[in-house]
Amino acid sequence: MTPMLAQVGLHHYLILAAMLFVCGLATMMLKRNAIGILMGVELILNAANVNLVAFNRFRFAVDAGGTGGLRLDGQVFAIFVIILAAAEAAVALAIFLSFYNNFTTIDVERGTQLKG
Amino acid sequence: MMIQLLAQTTPQPPDAGASAVLFYLFAILAGASALGVVLSRNIVRTAVFLLFTLTAVAGLYFLLDAEFLAAVQLVVYAGGTLVLIIFGVMLTSKSPGIRYEPKIGEVAVAIGVSVVSAVALVMAIVRQFPANSASVERHPTIADLGQTLLGDYLIPFELISVLLLVVMIGAAYLAKARRREGRP
Lengths: 116, 184
Hints:
Helix content of chain A: over 70%
Distance between the termini of chain B: 82 Å
Distance between the termini of chain A: 62 Å
Shape of chain B: globular
CATH topology of the largest domain in chain B: Four Helix Bundle (Hemerythrin (Met), subunit A)
Largest sheet of chain A: none
Order of helices and strands of chain B: HHHHHHH
Radius of gyration of chain B: 23 Å
Helix content of chain B: over 70%
Largest sheet of chain B: none
Number of domains of chain A: 1
CATH architecture of chain A: Orthogonal Bundle
Order of helices and strands of chain A: HHHH
CATH architecture of the largest domain in chain B: Up-down Bundle
Oligomer: heterodimer
Strand content of chain B: under 5%
């Protein structure tokens, strides 16, 4: 294996995260099933998480002024993003269930008269 | 020649080759599964592809020295959120004969926007972040993560627990089964 390929750096992770983001974007645009759109959102959040952790690993995880601790702000942000994604999925699925109870479908094209 | 090549690769840790192989394995798995999420027509298969993507991203977290985050990804995301999504699929999959096929114009717009964003992002990354090696003094531990989470981020940590309570109550209220004639 050549040394350039053997040395995995920051830009490898960034390009992978960009690919995940683009796949999530395409999923959100292509799916008409509301749960499929939710899966696209999850892909985009994962791409953001990969970016946060990779930047934290390669650019930021240095000793913070001799206090003996490492700065792990990127990982903390990623944990918050995971928690918020779980909360968002719960609320979105509750809304979709309510929508399905009223319209017997979760096609987002039929959601134009959603009210009350 | 050989000695020069060895001298170039000396500063790397001895397991750089193995971790590179693992990175490409997880990256290819994540990218292929994400493509499967985009291209799959069956919503259950889409969910399974999303599971593979989440698992591969957890492996990448292991490679990035974020072991706790990888465990959280596996437990909360792959074990919790994805099961929630699959329950949603099961509860809403009785739509009579409706095919969720996108229109041709939507497909064209989606492909155009995706290709343009992919090219722009990759060009920006390659130009902005040239290849560099990682230089960390020591590997971060879970103790460091705990110090950061309960030190600087104590207030957000407490706030997000309140948010989880609000979300639980709100989701239970929204998903409450209502009879149709009972609607106002």
